[in-house]
Target: Aminotransferase
Amino acid sequence: MSRLSKTMKKELAQIQPSSILAFNQEISSIPDIVKLTLGEPDFNTPDHVKQAAIKAIENNDSHYTDSRGTEGLRKAAAHFLNSKYDLNYDPDTQLLVTTGATEGIFSALTAILNPGDSVIIPTPIFPQYIPVTILNGGTPIFVDTSDNGFVLSPEKLQATIEANKDTVKAIVLNFPNNPTGVTYKKEDLEKLAAVIKQYDIFVISDEIYSELTYDGTHVSMGSILPEQTVLLNGASKSHAMTGWRIGLLCGPVDVVTEIAKVHQFAITSATTNAQVAAEEAFKNGPDDGQKMRAVYQERRDLLIDGLQQAGFECASPNGAFYLFAKIPAGLIQNSVDFCYDLARKAKVAVIAGSSFGPGGEGYVRISYAASTDSLKEAIKRIQQYVTDNQ
Model:
C-alpha cells in the first residue's frame, strides 16, 4: 500500500526536484569551478539591517508575530511600495509578510486554484510556478515568448485565454524576468491589462527584481490592474537578503484574506528577527539597492561584451542579474549537454535554458550576481572553450 497521499499521487508523479539546484549541487564538486548558476548576490546585507536584527535578538525579540507580519514591517513595506511604485495597499488588510516570494507563490496559487483550473505561464520563466500549479490540481499552459523578444504580446495572451477560457484562472507575470532579464514597460502592461480585465482571472505578478531595473523606472502591474493583481515582492534582491526569507504579498482585501489562511497554516509567521531587519531595510534603506544595481549593470556590460566576442547572441537585459545567451552554432546545441560539457572542460557552471520551459532550449542562463573577478575568469574560460570546440 502506498505511504503517500492518494489524492496527491498523480500530481507528485508529474514533478521532479529542481533541475537547477540538482545541477548546481552536482557540479560543485569540480575543483576550481566558477559558478554562475544561482541568483545569489555576492553583496552582503547592509550593516544597518544586520545591526537591527542583532539588536532584536539581544532584546529577546524572539516570539511569534502576527501571522500576517509585524505591524511595523507591514507599514514600512507598504510605504516602500507606495513611494517606489505608486502602489496603495492597506498594511492591515492587503499585505502579507511571507517566507520569501516562493512561499507567496505557493500560498497564492493554493488559495485560488480548483482542480481542473489552468494557469497561463509565459516562458522562459522561473520554474517555481509550474510544480505549485500541478500540486494544486491545475494545468500549466505554456506560452513561448522567444519569438517576440521574450515579451508576452497582448494578441498571444488573448488567443491563449480564448482557447482555454473555460479553465483559465490566472496568468503569471515575472518581470524583470528570470532568466532573460527582460522587463515590461508601462505601455506593455497597459495592453496586457486591457486583455485581462475582460475576464474573471488573476494576475500573479512576481516583481521581486523590481529594484534591479536598469533602464527607466519599474512599473508594477499592481498600479495598473489592482483589482485583479496578486503582487509578489520582497527584500531578497533589493537588499541582498536572500537567506533572510522575507517576501511580500499584496492584493485586493477579499483575496488576501483567503490567501492569509493558507499562509498561516503553512508557516505560522516569518522569523521575528528577520522581520525586524526587513523593517529597517524598507524604512531606513529604501535605496540600498541602487549601489548594487550600478555594479550589476557594469557586470552585465562586461559579460555581454565577452560573450559576444565568443560568438554568443544575447539581448541586453534591462533588469535582474541574468543573461540568457544563445549557444553558438558549431557547439553542442542541447542546453543540458552543453552545460555539463562546459563545466567539465572549462570549469564554468551555467544553467541550461531548457530548465525554464518552452523557448529556452538552445540557450543558457548566466548569473552575473557573482563577483567581477569571477566573471572575468569565466569569460576567459568560455572564450577558450569555444576556440577549442568549434
Notes: The mean pLDDT is 95.
